[in-house]
Amino acid sequence: NKVDALGIGPLFKRVFITHRFGIQHAKPSTHCFELIKKAEGCDWQDMLYIGDNPANDFVNLNKLGMQTVRVLTGVHRDVQVPPAVDATNTIQTLVGLSPTLEESASRLSPNS
């Protein structure tokens, strides 16, 4: 899977791959994220989504208060979008993910 191929599995306790929830729930739908939130028993601000396509990855998740990270790689790296549509955090490569995760962890709600 993507996580294993990228070698980032050890950074996370659990990883959810959104396309496994079915094409009918593809982004920008929040359906799978609502299921994840319920399964994890957490708040929106305790969740972190990492993506690269501002056309559909972040807009609805930002509205819910989820933390979002855009990786500026691949075919979407030069796409410019309004701040309301883009991720709340941006990194150049996955190498920049660790500091973002540490910052996100410091903002977790007390019941996480």
TrEMBL record:
<keyword id="KW-0378">Hydrolase</keyword>
<dbReference type="InterPro" id="IPR036412">
    <property type="entry name" value="HAD-like_sf"/>
</dbReference>
<protein>
    <submittedName>
        <fullName>HAD family hydrolase</fullName>
    </submittedName>
</protein>
<dbReference type="InterPro" id="IPR023214">
    <property type="entry name" value="HAD_sf"/>
</dbReference>
<dbReference type="GO" id="GO:0016787">
    <property type="term" value="F:hydrolase activity"/>
</dbReference>
<dbReference type="Pfam" id="PF13242">
    <property type="entry name" value="Hydrolase_like"/>
</dbReference>
